[in-house]
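WARN no homologs supplied; continuing
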Amino acid sequence: RVCGDNNASIWRSISFTTACIPQDLPLIETFDNEIPLCWTNEHVAGSSTYVWSISNGQAYMSYQGTGNEVVLMTPHLNVTPNKLHEFSFDYTHTVSASWNDILQVTLIDGENRTLLREFTSNDNTATKATYEFTFLPTTDIVAIEFRTIWANGYGMYIDNVRVDEAPDCLPLLNLTATNIQRRAWAGIERRLRVRS
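OK structure emitted
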């Protein structure tokens, strides 16, 4: 109890972390230094305690014994319900025909879970590649989950995770023009110019 100018109370320092609020789009994560705050990174099944770490500027999941599962999940994201969204990421892993490790990529939309893609370590995806998806959320908060289910393999990598609203007009790609001719209409000449 403090009663006068020369009295003091007992005090102590306490560290704590508040819950993360949903993040606005776009989400862009390049995993340069560490797994970011507000990403879930936890071991959820099996006897191992390993979780995702950073290796060479990528999220990396090292060898786990059979039956271990580890989840890496984005923060909760603010999205617009019933509007098309885009999601992409880079992925690679070590490959062996005898390994059957799995990476499941799942959209969590409210109470709904939608498996977007399942990779196995014997599916010849050892070359780093970008995988792209679109989704139409039904709620205003979503998250993307990367779940590793280990059998006997070694090494999965994720990088350049991106989630954003899709543009209203899709970009035009790989256009070609043939038989371009000069035409005149009502005395006004119009030209079509194609630039590469």
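The radius of gyration is 25 Å.
OK
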